[in-house]
Amino acid sequence: MDFLRPAGWEEALAAKAEHPTAVPIAGGTDVMVEINFDHRRPEYLLDLTRVAELAEWEATDRTVRLGAGVPYTRIMEELRTELPGLALAAHTVGSPQIRNRGTVGGNLGAASPAGDAHPALLAAGAEVEAASVRGTRRIPVEEFFTGVKRHALEPDELIRAVHIRRADGPQQFSKVGTRNAMVIAVCAFAVALHPRTRTVRTGIGSAAPTPVRAWEAEEFLGAALEEGGFWDSGAPLDPSAVRRFAELCAGACRPIDDVRGTAAYRRHAVGVMARRTLGWTWEAYRGGEGRTAQCA
Amino acid sequence: MAADRTASAPTTVTQATGAIRGTVGESTLRPDGTLKVTGEFAYSSDLWHEDMLWGFTLRSPYAHAAIRSIDTAGALALPGVYAVMTHADLPAGTHYGLEIRDQPVLAGDRVRYHGEPVAIVAADHPETARRAAARIAVEYEELPLVVDEATATAPDAPLLHPGRRDHHASHVPHPNIVHRQPIRRGDVAAARARADVVVRRDYEVGMQDQAFLGPESGLAVPAEDGGVDLYIATQWLHVDRDQLAPVLGLPADKVRLTLSGVGGAFGAREDLSMQAHACLLALSTGRPVKIVYNRYESFFGHVHRHPAKLTYEHGATRDGTLLYVQCRIVLDGGAYASSSPAVVGNAASLSIGPYVVENVDVEAIALYSNNPPCGAMRGFGAVQACFAYEAQMDAVAAELGLDPVEFRRRNAMSQGATMPTGQLVDSPAPVAELLRRVKALPMPPERAWEAAGGPVDVRALPGGLSNTTHGEAVVRGVGYAVGIKNVGFSEGFDDYSTARIRLEVIGGEPVALVHTAMAEVGQGGVTVHAQIARTELGVDRVTLHPADTRVGSAGSTSASRQTYMTGGAVKHACEAVRAEVLRRGRERFGASHPAWAEPERLRLEDGKVVTDGGEVIGDLAGILGDGAVDLEREFRHRPTEPFDRRTGQGFGHVQYSFCAHRAVVEVDTELGLVKVVELAAAQDVGKAINPLSVVGQIHGGSTQGLGLAVMEEIVVSPDGARVRNPSFTDYLIPTILDTPAMPVEVLELADDNAPYGLRGVGEAPTLSSTPAVVAAIRAATGLPLRRVPVRPEHLTGG
Amino acid sequence: MRVNMRVNGRPYEADDVWEGESLLYVLRERLGLPGSKNACEQGECGSCTVRLDGVPVCACLVAAGQAEGREVVTVEGLADHARPSEPSRPGQVAPLAPVQQAFIDAGAVQCGFCTPGLLVAADELLERDPDPSDADIREALSGNLCRCTGYEKILDAVRLAAARTGEAV
pLDDT tens across C100-148, in order? Predict the structure, then answer.
């Protein structure tokens, strides 16, 4: 095994180009477990913790460019306003120690269906900035996950950043685990209201081979809100519409039975979380959160 | 600067400061506390020796398979590898076991469980050892599996241990049953005919893991005399030694064990794990060998709590009197016997709980199967039964329309009661009082998540940080339970402990040196020993010698027995030392005061000899001079007898202990998530030798019971008998956010048979915690919940 | 490979480090600092918690090479870390940090295997928030498993350390 420690981004890309089998390591919260338990013996470890720019984020009017190496703790503390859904998700990751090390870039690189950041990215709307010595491209997060622990990166590519839409309305994230802290998701759900575009987006974790959006549910609710003039009136939602939204979210799952939970439970729980988180976000919207944005 | 390293010596725990002084009955701080908070306390995994090698174990990927061949050439060819050993390389004995020597040191022609050791490697680095193990080629041929009672006793069932010759073999109904214990008393059929209410239900308890935090580890150092010195984390040094010596082909005195720091035990270190492997590799290479399991391997490296299937039938009269209990308890012992016979004895004899029932018909068995071996874990046998009988008590109370605590009170045993085994309960058994106390405690506030007035605090809600509810569908429930556990080794076992005390004057001050082989696994026995020595010998300074096999056996740190037994031995030896001191005093100073002639009137206090009237008549420094008093004594509890194999009658247990719990839970009834809000306990401890650690034991035991109630289970795949969750990612134990406030009420009703009147503390709180939590979840949800751990899908119907 | 780092204020160098080794392994097996514990090696127990450039992390999940040139504080350096103005000299016994003394006094130590990680985490919490609520203590320590105590005495210890530090100010 060789340990590569590039001091800057260009050097990192060059190293990855030269050694496409190199395994990038940032917080180590996935890679080191695999090494400690002898599940993986990469030829090269590519340490990204010395690439300073990866640990930075910058916000523009409409988006946040989140460096791949910003740890969850900083997302919770620094981006609660810009990225409330992701900040909530970050708070459910592992333990304080894990949140101090783990990064969204690492979560994407592992591409586990149970990654806590993924549903929040799907709901907010995000693009993965992938780079190589050949250049840079942006991959919509919906297209990033290609299978269980598989993603759309080329062997010579690294994740530079994630471009996430700045919240223009309330967002929520909820995750079911069988413990009250430090637990991997049995399933997770994120919802984001986007008053500016008058859309609702969702993200489901751990209930399909990849993180997914509940497209039908989004379309149904978007239409219901539009037709009923709810964005303008801020009226309470029709319980039957909430119920239908929850059913469609549950229906978007393709879960399995495993040691963490049954498929049936996952489907059920996603429905409950969809109903509750929609309720919380809509109440916040009615209370004024994001209602100014759509008037602007 | 290069790291400076010296060979690690075992930790000698000495009275370092003046801050830790305490006698019997006073809350006393741990003598090893400073070393433990500075990181200097040497646990078995911390040991290091010049030239040491790392050992590694190759384990079976199959639960049941014949081994056709093993080729180690590839491993041996790897640079840095010093030894590779298989069954064929064992120099002497090939099997070990606590009671029945049925477990191979390394698998021979057959593996019987997933993870069974097949070969061992010694190399210069852990990674070299792992790579070498990966190069060992083993040819397996899978065999049909035995996974439950049906497959174990089927007509064509493969026999796990054909040709059994152990002492249970002749009385079991099938060779795949390790042991069977019936208990029969009264006339159940007649009682059933008189019952107004009959409740018959099935229950199930999942396989719990001890999940101590310090994985199995140790360092074996070959000695010049051809023997071996093993520095090890264990629960019972002498029984380790007695199993190791025949395997190593050495006399017992050449197998010397010293206890190193132990990172928790809870039963999981009762059996051997890596002890024999490290010693074999050390003797074979002539180099010190260290083996440290990682968490994954630890799940395969020790026995677990027996999973159980239990069927109970209770009959009662309309006025709430229990008439009879009939039950059948099937424990899965897995591939090897371990402690299964004793677990069966406990499950059977304690099966009906702390209640008076005239008519009892009980059968408990343990199976041999291809599941992971099961054995000792805190409260063994009694934990499984308590979950079922307490669920039954609630169910019968509900049928009768009685309050569950009131129904228990009407049937609670007290001193003078008779157990189903015919044994008279001849010391306090305050079952009703314990229940009364937990019930009388104030209730925790409702809706604590709203308390601050600001936004919802999800940390106080089911789901915690995962943000699953802001109060929606959250329902509170309250549940009660009480349990009974035996203390000490039962059924006629010659249970004893040894202590050696040396009293001498050092620097003008009397110092007591306490030497026992007691395994301090965290329970605080070292504190207790120092307290007893101070109390009995009237000295301030007590030094604790490292525990090793150079002194007589202290028995196991299990069965809630160490304060009673080795504490008793320290007391007994101190009394002998005191008698000798007084004899020497009388010899030298007898003429100076008439009280010398009546030693029963004299005590030692603050380094002085004091009469019962408070008069000082001598001092230790003057009596001892340059001499020392150095005596070793054994202590035995009163003898017990085996249970009759047909009727289960017999004076089988030394002592009983009782604990009651009240659990308050809040359940998200839609998502099936549980927050235990409060877990209150009341326990009779006879005499709290160290109140601080008594409460610590009750907290810890209660929390392990909570874990079994709502999250802890080793999941074994039914098709392959493979462990599916051998990691802390998927075997979950409670975090600090899962663990509630735990008010504790301690009763001290003396047991006149025991030293200081004390009653073993450690296990009882583990029993009633689980059924109390589940009763509270039943109260919140209205669901029957016949299985633990309760999983979210059990509460949602998913 | 060779790895250099500062641990508890002193420079260390480790040679012949295998690239797959963790910071935890290097501390325990190469630098003679076994205080950080190896309970799970998968970031699920907190027993190996150390401060890496001031931040509490699981040392088992830091690749040895990632610690190159970094500043590490382990339980062995906690007493000095708590009193940076009066570091102990070799041979001299440092007084315990308030949180260490509180763990002893409150009965928060049983087997002690989780203790080093809990101490580092609790010490960092009290540095950030000298007067944490119970819920804040629970959240800050939710990555540290203990199997012996049921956590009640650990909460007591952190409260005690906070109270003592508050009085001393």
Answer: 999 999 999 999 999 999 999 999 999 999 999 999 999 999 999 999 9
Structural domain span for residue C56: 3-74
* Of the residues C23, C52, C74, the one at which a domain ends: C74
Mean pLDDT rounded to a whole number for chain B: 96
Q: Are residues C99 and C26 in the same domain?
A: no
Burial-class residue A268 by CB neighbours within 10 Å (0-12, 13-18, 19+). Answer: buried
Q: Report all structural domains of chain B as residue ranges with CATH numbers, in order of start.
A: 53-143+215-262+269-301 (3.90.1170.50), 496-636 (3.30.365.10)
Q: What is the CATH number of domain A171-291?
A: 3.30.390.50
Tens digits of per-residue pLDDT, B154-194?
999 999 999 999 999 999 999 999 999 999 999 999 999 99
Q: Provide the CA B61 distance to its chain's centre, in angstroms.
A: 28
- Judged by CB atoms closer than 8 Å, whether chains meet at C36 and B39 is answered as yes
Contact A97 C139 (CB under 8 A): no
Return the bridge partners of B329, or none: B310, B364
- Rounded distance, CA A274 to CA A262, Å? 18
Chain A residues touching residue B467 (CB < 8 angstroms): 88, 91-92, 172-175
Q: Which residues of A touch C37 (CB under 8 A)?
A: none
Residues of B in contact with C46 (CB under 8 A): none
At residue A139, the 3 state secondary structure works out as strand
- B219 Cβ contact partners less than 8 Å away, ≥ 6 residues apart: B44, B47, B48, B49, B52, B230, B231, B232, B260, B278, B288, B289, B290
Query: Looking at this predicted complex, what is its ipTM?
Result: 0.97
Q: How many CA atoms lie within 13 A of A218 on its CB side?
A: 22
Q: Number of CB pairs < 8 Å for B and C?
A: 193
pLDDT in tens, B414-469: 999 999 999 999 999 999 999 999 999 999 999 999 876 678 999 999 999 999 99
Helix axes A215-227, A239-251, angle to 10 degrees: 160
Tell whether the model's pLDDT for residue B677 goes beyond 90: yes
Among B131, B466, B671, B708, most A C-beta atoms within 10 A, so best to mutate, is B466
Query: Per-residue confidence at C81, pLDDT binned at 50, 70, 90?
Result: confident
Q: Which of C:69-108 have CB within 8 Å of A? A: none
Q: Where in chain A is the domain with CATH 3.30.390.50?
A: 171-291
- Measured CA to CA, the distance from residue B403 to residue B389 in angstroms comes to 16
In chain C, whose CA is at the least distance from the CA of A31? C61
Cis omega (within 30 of 0) on the bond before B462?
Answer: no
Cα–Cα distance list, A101 to A105, A112, B26, B190 (Å)? 11, 17, 44, 68
Rounded to an integer, the average pLDDT of A260-272 is: 97
State how far the Cα of B540 lies from the Cα of B535, in Å rounded to an integer.
9
* 8 Å CB contact of A32 and C46: no
Contact (CB<8Å) B469/A176: no
What CATH number does the domain containing C8 carry? 3.10.20.30
Q: Give the mean pLDDT of C6-10.
A: 97
What's the confidence (pLDDT) of residue C39?
Answer: 97
Q: Which CATH number is C126's domain given?
A: 1.10.150.120
The structure tokens listed for A17 are: 């180009």
Q: Domain count of chain C?
A: 2
Mutate to test the interface with B, among A40, A180, A282 (most CBs of B within 10 A): A180
CA A248 – CA A207 distance, rounded (Å): 14
Mutate to test the interface with A, among C57, C70, C71, C74 (most CBs of A within 10 A): C57
Q: Looking at residue B7, what is its pLDDT?
A: 39
Which residue matches tokens 């039943």? B778
- C 106-165 → A contacts, CB under 8 A: 121, 139-140, 142-144
Answer whether C76 touches B (CB < 8 Å).
Answer: yes
Residue of C nearest to A6 (CA): C66
